[in-house]
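Internal ticket - ligand job 418, glycine:
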Amino acid sequence: MNVLLLGSGGREHALAWKLAQSPGMGRFYALPGNPGIGDLAELVEGIPLSAHDTLVRWCKDNAIDLVVVGPEAPLVAGLVDRLAEAGIAAFGPDAAAARLEGSKLFTKELCRANGIPTAAFARFTKPEAAWAYVTTEGAPIVIKADGLMAGKGVVVAQTVEEAVAAIDQVFAGGGQEVLVEEFMEGEEASLFCLVDGETVVPFGSAQDHKRAFDGDLGPNTGGMGAYSPAPILTPELERQAIEEIVIPTAKAMVAAGTPYRGVLYAGLMLTSAGPKLVEYNCRFGDPECQVLMPRFKGNLLETLAAVAHGRLAEVSVSWSDEAAITVAYASRGYPGAHQTGSEIRGVEAAAALEGVLVFQAGTKKIGARLLSNGGRVLNVTAVGATLKEARDRAYAAAALIDWPDGFYRHDIGWRALG
Ligand code: AMP
Ligand code: GLY
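stdout (structure tokens):
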């Protein structure tokens, strides 16, 4: 099978690492990829992920059998629909199904219509009505903008004043409608499922750390680290979440004539009343994927192709009992302004440690030198018999990396490890 992997982050390096080991792989390409992915696949240059016509033509010219889409933007924009019209299989939902991530309002209405546990909500097209609602409901309360906001469309308001300001911000930013949600109390966990129509196969759990600094302080980031499995998501809670949230969603999408095919990433709040949906994503998490792939024991290519071809029910997946943890090594200043282009040394020495994998994200290579080229730069990942062993290995590896312009959190896994 000839494969094209789309994306350039640590998530895609982890997917590439597992795909490259899959029996049945023919020619393996990545676009745009990164230097880490370039050690495993042939990098394709010069085609933006938004250039769907050019991408489809390139896939035809290169006899691609399967396109694996890493990030959400091409999915929401309908790349998979375009590939399907051209007869090219893809792992990832079409645009209609990707609305589960692309539109929070779509997902909330789907939950309401199908009795899926999630925060109570109200939607407003006029700020005055939203102000009145939050004044009556009181704080804490959650204000959201619709659409793909790269994690920036959500404000957990601690006071009514903050809520009113957040509502104003949504409309000032060009939003037509604001979503106001009940504040859910609990611990968050991420559950991944492969979904092919009504077939749902659990695909691992994880917890991440969104804040930039130790102690969950500092600004929100794309993710400073993650571990898998999430011990708080017990087998019982996982079963409940699948039965009450994921399966009814899959069935509702089929009933609407827009079946979901791909990985469905459910952000869950584990409340005293059971798991509730915070949000869906229509792709693997980053950095969650970096801790799922080292624990997945099957043939990833065969599994993703089975989803793409509507044959998920025919494959079985198995997972290692080991735990995995990943620590993001980011550019100093991230998620704010930061420099790029500084040299990183010691990645090979770190990756040579037992159980350690270093996935690259924002890197570039000039000759033999590895340079930083983004905010999140490396994902120092380790597996171990226990989460503690995995953590100790990951931090031993991070300590071998010589990159004065980088920083990482020292407490990844604290919720699970104490
Ligand atoms: P989202 O982009 O919808 O995942 O929201 C980002 C973050 O905001 C989530 O990971 C939660 O930490 C928080 N959040 C979103 N909605 C709620 C809610 N209804 N109650 C409590 N926290 C929430
Ligand atoms: N780590 C969060 C995400 O991928 O959306």
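Auto-summary: Residues 119, 142, 151, 154, 156, 181-184, 188, 267, 278-279 surround adenosine monophosphate (ligand 1) (CB under 6 Å). Residues 323-417 form a domain with the Glycinamide Ribonucleotide Synthetase; Chain A, domain 4 fold (CATH 3.90.600.10).
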